[in-house]
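Reopening this one. Same input as before:
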Amino acid sequence: MPLSESIKILVTNQKGGVGKSTISANLAAYLAMQEDLQVALVDFDKQASSSRWTKKAPDIGIRVAQVEINYQSAGMALLSARAGVRKYSSGVQVSICDFTWTPAMSEDFMSDFDIVLVPSSSAKFEMASTEIFILEYVQKRMARLAINKQSLIVVPSRVDPGHSSKGTFTNLDFLTNCHIAPPIHRMPEIDSYVYEDFFCVCSDRAVSDNFCIFGKYITKMIDERQEIRKTLSINGPSVNREIGKKVSVLDDYRNRAKNLGFYGGAAMADPKQDINLSVPQDPPSVRSIGSRFIPSFLKKNQE
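Same output, byte for byte:
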């Protein structure tokens, strides 16, 4: 892969504890060792877990940097984040940025990346939170998505080995730029490799095989990214309406999860009431998204 065609990958979610740092460090190692790519890891998190892991484990040539963002204003936050990505991504083929999403950061930052990985557990409320996070982002950045044709990838993270991604995140099914990666399993053996070694080359075959399947999938998405920046078609408001419907249903689900501390909760009707995401819940208010259009590449072909 020529340096001029370098790929920028953002690993993010608005919720902590979903495996962002683990994925960032180990994906960087997989691409460097198994795919022989020049890789940079840019760690924006204050805990610096991914950069610490990469520095403490055997040196495999990954460029590692920890970047502090200036949150004095929204403009300064965006400028300092972009400056960090630009500085440490120069001269490599792939850069991976570990960032816990915050409303203090403009969605323009997320739009800068070729691929966005959104780790999520299989817990019902967390899956709903992840769906809302992606749908609201797509809703706000339709024009940019038309230009950069960014790939959004949900990563089932820390799930049981028997987990199947089939039938999950169904509210995202209609977005062709949104995909579900092979899951990263939760295994007791993983803890022994933290800060010591990387999953893709560790001695435990189950751990290494599981992460290599994920790594190969991301490598395929990186390769496909080289062919994605071609056509642009702005046509079809039906997906715009569909996003509005999905966000409305998920908003009601999110409102009921306020006391659980999930993304953007509002007044909660009954925290004990279980909600079926496949059935609309008559939310107290329906979000209007106007008459903007969405590119046809986001709309799957209807049979």
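So the earlier flakiness isn't reproducible anymore. For the record, Helices lie at 20-33, 49-56, 74-89, 107-111, 124-140, 142-148, 205-228, 238-255.
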